[in-house]
Amino acid sequence: IMWRPGFEHEECRPGRVFSYHRSLCVWSWVHRGTRARPGLVLGLDAGGSCQGMAYRIAAGQKTEVADYLYSRELVTDGYQALLHHVHLAIGVVTALTFRANRGHPQYAGRLDHRSAGHVVGSARGLSGDKPEYLDSEVRQLQAMGITEGRLHKINAMVQGRPR
To answer: Most buried among 69, 116, 132, 135, using CB within 10 Å?
Structure first.
């Protein structure tokens, strides 16, 4: 959502969630892969913390944006929607988030770099190929001053750049 929210918002701010970290831990059967050849997508997985973006929407758009996000992110049950505290510079807010569903067959867990890179480099789904998805995410993280070594390493491998 960080690099392509897909909905109108009044502002966005950097924030951090605790108890979850960003991980390539969800098999994608639709947007970035197929059931026969799944891709990998990012999810919030248990443990640690994660920096990202929080989007403020107009109060009158709450239902419309939530419906949009539910239909986009919950194509299958690979994610679980929940309200979670997000720590912003101005204080703590509650936001709609989507975490990896560890009890679903799409939960991939933590794959080694080489395996994750192979999947990312070869997958394709309805929303395009996986290398573009991961590269866009890593570029957004870099623009925010966030370095996530594992994602950067996998992206460099997939893009054919030395790391």
So the answer is: 116
Helix axes 149-159, 130-143, angle to 10 degrees: 130
pLDDT recorded at residue 138: 92
Residue given tokens 């794959």 in the structure block:
111
pLDDT, tens only, 99-124: 999 999 999 999 998 999 889 888 77
Number of residues in the chain? 163
The answer to whether 27 and 43 are in contact (CB under 8 A) is no
For residue 56, list its beta bridge partners.
11
- Provide the β-strand partners of residue 94: 85
DSSP string, 53-77: EEEE--GGGHHHHHHHHHHHH-SSS
Q: Which residues contact 28 (CB under 8 A, 6 or more apart)?
A: 38, 39, 40, 41, 78, 106, 123, 125, 130
Radius of gyration from C-alpha coordinates of the chain? 15
